[in-house]
């Protein structure tokens, strides 16, 4: 059953996807504004379950790529990813039947709705990461055999670069270089695929899950953590669990090669007093260690919430002195296969850790 996405639903999707985005995926506020503006101008968007796609439907995902800190300073008009989509359409010789997020975090959960509203297309209720990851090969589409090209990258001035490769790692390498030269942020359309390929390779239901998470957080009267637990308990993920509570005492960031690298240090409070957590990130949170031992790593989700408001905090907004709660959510099974862990397990990000799936919260 299709769902109509209007301005209120975009608010909820942006909030919920910031939880699923593990701190990354671009600034959710920017994506929300772009999507709301497009919906107000062109009308609401249909959210289409993947099982309602025809096998031969042509689906063209759209996204922003680059350093999240740069995207806050170089605001998009909302037309950029449409330009990329249209370049891919011309190359393939087909018109898109739908668009879809490549990830369900930050700006990239809402940006496809801006594209869809402008083009009069549905958005498929699925994505290729089940969270946010920093690189274009970090996709279930890639892991399970979909070519990422032809792909196109555009900037806010209308410059567009078409990329054709026989290797999705090369797609990332070339597109990242183009993005850096576009000023650190670009707008990409990649992994054009059929409806049959979407059904075989995408993670279903992530946009509606983001909407449900956002609504639960918005309406939560008491503990935001309880609201997140209730929604995730019934999902294809695992039930969210609290990993640590404390005060941020240090944040280190550097922008390099189109990414934001760094870590945040948190001193424990209450039950965690006397312990310390370090979270390492590359755009997104990758690993969380308490007193030097990892308690959660990619691909599982590590999300920082404001301890007072319950709101999720992106990596670019982490600040000294903030009181926070760190939560973990186990990823869906499709993201934990040996083939998937070869692409986005701890070792792929240089973490000295062995992946162990988070258990459901007791």
Automatic annotation (TrEMBL):
Domain annotation S-Me-THD N-terminal: ranges: 9-164
Domain S-Me-THD-like C-terminal: 167-358
Pfam families: S-Me-THD_C, S-Me-THD_N
Lineage: superkingdom: Archaea
Record's protein name: Hydantoinase
Taxonomic source organism: Haloferax denitrificans ATCC 35960
Lineage: Archaea, Methanobacteriati, Methanobacteriota, Stenosarchaea group, Halobacteria
């Amino acid at each position: 059953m299709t769902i109509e996405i209007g301005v209120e639903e975009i608010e909820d999707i942006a909030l919920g996807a910031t939880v699923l985005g593990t701190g990354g995926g671009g600034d959710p506020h920017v994506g929300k504004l772009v999507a709301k503006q497009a919906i107000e101008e062109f009308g609401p968007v249909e959210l289409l379950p993947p099982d309602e796609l025809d096998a031969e439907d042509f689906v063209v995902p759209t996204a922003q790529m680059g350093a999240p800190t740069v995207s806050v300073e170089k605001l998009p008009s909302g037309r950029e990813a449409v330009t990329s989509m249209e370049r891919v359409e011309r190359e393939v010789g087909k018109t898109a039947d739908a668009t879809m997020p490549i990830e369900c975090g930050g700006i990239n959960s809402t940006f496809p709705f801006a594209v869809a509203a402008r083009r009069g297309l549905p958005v498929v209720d699925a994505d290729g990461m089940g969270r946010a990851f920093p690189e274009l090969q970090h996709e279930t589409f890639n892991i399970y055999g979909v070519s990422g090209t032809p792909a196109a990258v555009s900037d806010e001035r209308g410059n567009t670069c078409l990329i054709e490769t026989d290797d999705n790692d090369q797609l990332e390498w070339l597109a990242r270089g183009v993005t850096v030269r576009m000023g650190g942020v670009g707008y990409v359309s990649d992994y054009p695929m059929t409806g049959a390929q979407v059904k075989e390779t995408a993670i279903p239901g992530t946009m509606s899950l983001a909407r449900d998470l956002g609504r639960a957080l918005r309406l939560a009267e008491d503990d935001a953590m309880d609201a997140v637990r209730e929604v995730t308990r019934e999902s294809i993920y695992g039930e969210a669990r609290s990993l640590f509570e404390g005060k941020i005492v240090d944040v280190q960031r550097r922008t390099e090669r189109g990414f934001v690298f760094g870590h945040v240090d948190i001193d424990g409070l209450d039950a965690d007093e006397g312990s310390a957590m370090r979270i390492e990130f590359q755009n997104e949170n990758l690993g969380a260690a308490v007193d030097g031992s990892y308690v959660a790593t990619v691909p599982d989700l590590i999300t920082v919430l404001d301890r007072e408001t319950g709101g999720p905090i992106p990596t670019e907004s982490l600040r000294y002195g903030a009181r926070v709660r760190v939560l973990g959510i186990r990823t869906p099974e499709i993201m934990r296969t040996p083939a998937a862990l070869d692409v986005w397990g701890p070792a792929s990000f240089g973490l000295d850790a062995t992946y162990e799936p988070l258990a459901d919260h007791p």
